[in-house]
Structure formats: C-alpha cells, structure tokens
Amino acid sequence: MEVFFVWILFSLLVGAIGSDRKIGFWGAFFLSLILSPIIGLIITVVSPTKAKIAQEKETLELLRAQDKREREKAGEEPKEVSFISEEEQVKETWKCPICSVKNEKTESYCLDCGYRRRMSD
Predict the structure, then answer these.
(1) Which of 3, 32, 111, 121 lies deepest, with the highest CB count within 10 Å?
(2) Which helix (H) or strand (E) holds 35?
(3) Helices vs strands, H then E, count in the chain
(4) How many CB atoms lie within 10 A of CB 63?
(5) What is the pairing mode between strands 93-95 and 102-104?
(6) How far from the centroid of its chain's Cα atoms is residue 90's Cα?
(7) How many angstroms separate the CA atoms of 68 and 91, rounded?
(8) Helix or strand (DSSP H, E) at 6
(9) What domains lie within the chain, and their CATH numbers?
(10) What is the pLDDT of residues 44-85, one digit of tens each?
(11) Are the CB atoms for 44 and 35 separated by under 8 Å?
(12) To the nearest 10°, the Cα dihedral for 25, 30, 33, 38?
C-alpha cells in the first residue's frame, strides 16, 4: 500500500515538472502513473518548454517578416501557390498499358517498365 502512495506522489511531482512544458501537467502525470515515474520523468524532461516553443514561433515570425521585406526591396512578386486538382493531374499524366503506372505527359517512355508511348496513349 505504501508503494502505491509513493508511486502517486512521484507521479504528481513529475506532473508538476511537466506543467511548464509542452506535455503539460496531466500528460506527464498520466504517463508517469501508467508507465512509471522514472519513465514519465524522462519523457517530461525531453518535452520542450513552453518558453522555448514561444521563442521558436517568434523567431520564425521575424524570419518571415525579414524575408518579406527583402523580397519587397528586390522588387520580387510574392510567390503564388497554385494547387492542381486531381482532374488536372489526370490530364497531365498517361497510364502505361503494360504496368499501369501513371507517367507525366512529357515522358516518351514508361519510367517503370520502359514501354514506349504512342501518341494515341
């Protein structure tokens, strides 16, 4: 019975350590309760701190803003991202009659089996 209380006490301690980390109090507590307080402590210590995550987000935002300013100075247009629908992707490929692999429309030979494409394919 004493082992049970010590187990829960150490699990609560690991949870308290995890409260300032990404894993959080409850995640660290339940991991240490289910696995063991030692394994829970190892996982909790490996989990990044909330301050480190916030610092990384701030750094990423600063880098994005700096990149945007540099592009504006150079007179570059922002890159447009276009998504191709599956229907358009089908139009840009051809299916090999031998191995059924989809190849790009610009390919004259099947990239898998080497079948030479006819213009009717």
Answers:
(1) 32
(2) none
(3) 5, 2
(4) 10
(5) antiparallel
(6) 27
(7) 35
(8) helix 2-18
(9) 2-50 (no CATH), 84-121 (2.30.30)
(10) 999 999 999 999 999 988 988 888 888 888 776 655 545 555
(11) no
(12) -60
